[in-house]
Amino acid sequence: MTSPNSGAETYDAVVVGNGVLGYSLALMLRRRDISVALVGQDHRPWSASVAAGAMIGCFGEVTSTLLQTPSGRAKLDLGVHARGLWNDWLAALDSEAGASGSANLLTADGTFVLLNAIGSPGVDSENYAAIRQALDKYGEKYDEVEPSEIDWMEPDALARPLRALHIPGEHAVDSGGLLDRLRQAFLRRGGTLVSDEAVELLADGGRISGVALSSGERLSSRCVVVAAGARSQMLVDSIPDLARTVPPLVSGYGMSVLLDTSPLGIRGPRSVLRTPNRAFACGLHLVPRGADRVYVGATNIVSADPVEHPVVRDIHFLLDCAVRQLHRGLWHSPVTRTHVGNRPVSLDGYPIIGQAGLEGLWMLTGTYRDGLALSPLLAPEMARRILGEQPQLDLDLFAPVRPPLQPLSRHEIIRTTVTHTMAVGYESDWHLPVDWPGQIEHNMHRELARFADTLHPRLTPPPEILATARHNPRIATRLRQYYEQYDPTGAAEDVSQ
Fold first, then answer.
1. Beta bridge partners of 172
2. Cis before residue 298, ω within 30 degrees of 0?
3. Helix, strand or coil for residue 425?
4. pLDDT, position 494
5. Which of 373, 342, 320, 23 minimizes the C-alpha distance to 159?
């Protein structure tokens, strides 16, 4: 552990990470007259926020496995709570940033969830049913609609929706516009932006004392918040004792595109169009971004390190899905921009929120696909905790220093992994003899079970982590080290009840 130089710039708090979560927390602290340095490179390499479709709902993300466990239902409760805060949150940003009318940040009016012929019953049908179940449980308004009556859609005949529902309260925002608005509000509040990369946490005598930057300079503070998304692991690794106790973070990188829809000759859709979550990803989704632009996303590949550039495989897969499942006319659309975002994924699949080991060190990461949507809820809560005020949310389950969370049994995780892996094939339009899928599933289940045994006698990571670790020795090694630290005898904390 290293102590900062005495000549370092000193702040009441240093927030590392200039994505939506980092900005939102820094702004909340400035509202309380706390001097804050927000650290992050202006062009945001590896960021998830800049590539996000920025859907600010929660019900469209519901899955059958989410509803099965207390930890999953706790995540959904947070999402429902956060969704109800967005109107006031945007209005406050408008006032602070000197803007007028939050409507220009809202890009979509409602969401259509599509159950189409491309998905697999074990994923799409079950998740579609789970979305309806969650909507009913929370009393959320929705309507079953005839898919052929949805404006704008023109899918391939073999990929047409079989069922659809409309959720009028699930919207989307322009993620780039949101980041600009947060930046303006933070600066107008007197916040300090540091366009650099934090590369090391500095500590002294068991408490945090600042961060070191790639430029060689240091920032001094007795409060540091790691909100650097998928790059958070590099900072955690700078303090080995901390790294051994916090769930390791990897990247769930995804690729999205902006398309020009003017060649279609019709105005773009007004609502989000999306499938249920499928194939280890957040489902195919299209988000309006103006009269003649749409955002299409997103792929999801787990990687040990953040990824900066898209690969041909992901671009081909995503565009093929969009053309076949949403509108054949997109075949003629210019691709105006591609994005790569790196979602922060903990190796047990749950957020990392709260005080982290050293006195004065906090973490706000591991939120996977939910960080932007949860920002109006998590930023004020973190500010309350940092300032020593009474918390209003129960986030103990997501404390940074914790045993691995495993809400499902190994058998259930392996079964889900196999189902989602097969779903990738179906969405890629594979053609197999009718009896082959059953054989593939059987052999894949056996192989995954053998591999899981090499990680730990009983502890098992989430499906997308398990599927990747099988082919990624670095992630497999991190899992073994994390499991050994907390559970050398095979006695995990049970959160399944």
1. 55, 108
2. yes
3. helix
4. 42
5. 320
Read off the pLDDT of each residue in 294-302 and give the average, rounded to a whole number.
Answer: 92
164 contacts 148 by C-beta, under 8 angstroms = no
Amino acid symbol at 391: P
Give the model confidence (pLDDT) of 402-438 as tens digits: 999 998 999 999 999 999 999 989 888 888 999 999 9
Q: For position 486, what pLDDT does the model report?
A: 85
- Residues 6 or more apart whose CB falls under 8 angstroms from that of 202 comprise 1, 2, 3, 4, 208, 209, 210, 211, 212, 218
Percent of the chain with pLDDT over 70: 96
Q: Which residue has the tokens 């339009």?
A: 429
Tokens 């957040």 sit on residue: 282
For residues 461 and 464, give the distance between their C-alpha atoms in angstroms, rounded to a whole number: 8
Beta bridge partners, 257, equal: 296, 338
The predicted structure's pLDDT at residue 374: 97
- Residue 383 CB-half CA count within 13 A: 22
Sign of CA dihedral 62, 80, 361, 202: positive
Interatomic CA distance for residues 293 and 218, integer angstroms: 42
- Across the chain, which distance is largest between two alpha carbons, in Å? 70
Going through 221-300 in order, the beta strands assigned E by DSSP cover 224-226, 249-260, 272-274, 285-288, 293-297
Retrieve residue 195's tokens: 């366009």
Return the ∠ at Cα 426 (arms to 420 and 432), rounded to 5°: 120
Contact 321, 206 (CB under 8 A): no
Tokens 């079953």 belong to 144
- DSSP labels, 106-164: EEESSEEEEEETTS-IIIIIHHHHHHHHHHHHTT---EEE-GGGSTT-B--GGG-EEEE
CA–CA distance from 389 to each of 15, 226, 384, 399 (Å)?
Answer: 19, 20, 5, 17
Q: Tell me how many degrees the CA angle 347-353-354 measures, rounded to the nearest 5.
A: 130
The confidence score (pLDDT) of residue 264 equals 87
Q: Are 254 and 343 in contact (CB under 8 A)?
A: yes
Residue 354, phi-psi category: left (phi > 0), alpha (psi -120 to 50), beta (remainder):
left
409 CB-near residues (< 8 Å, 6+ apart)? 496
Q: How much is the pLDDT for 1?
A: 35
